[in-house]
Amino acid sequence: LQRGATAVPSKGGQSRKGSTKLTHEVPSALPVSDTLKRRARYARKRMTTELARGVGGGRCGMLASAFVKLGVEDMAMREQAMADGDRAEARKLGESARMHLLYARETCVKDAGAVARHGEDFASLIAHAVASDIAKATP
Asked: Three-state secondary structure along the chain?
C-alpha cells in the first residue's frame, strides 16, 4: 500500500473477504520467469472478474477462483515449456489449463444458479454487479 492510501485500509477485513492465499494468489515459487508470473497474476484477476460479471451474477466463489488459479498457473508453465522447446509438456499443460478454466466457468454458473434459487433472481445479481462496478469507477 502506498502511504496515505485509504481505500483498502478503510474496509478493514472486508478487503480480503472471500479470498485466501491458497485460492487467490499465484505463488512466487512457480517455476517460470518473473514476466510469466506477473502475467499469471494479472490473468487470474481478469478471469475471475470476467467470470463474475459474465456468468456469476457479480460473484466468483472460492472454488471457481481456485480453478482459475490452477488454470493460469498451467498456462504460465505451458508458455515456459514452449520457450524451452518442450512441446509434449506444453501440450499436456495446455489441456490441463483448458480443463481447469472450463471447470471454473461451470462452477461459477452453478454457484450463481444456487444463489438465484435461494431468493435472488439472476437479473438482480447482474444489476447489483453493474451498480457496484459503477460505484467503484466514480471517484
From this structure: CCCCCCHHHHHHHHHHCCCCHHHHCCCCCCCCCHHHHHHHHHHHHHHHHHHHHHCCCCCCCHHHHHHHHHHHHHHHHHHHHHHHCCHHHHHHHHHHHHHHHHHHHHHHHHHHHHHHHCCCCHHHHHHHHHHHHHHHHCC
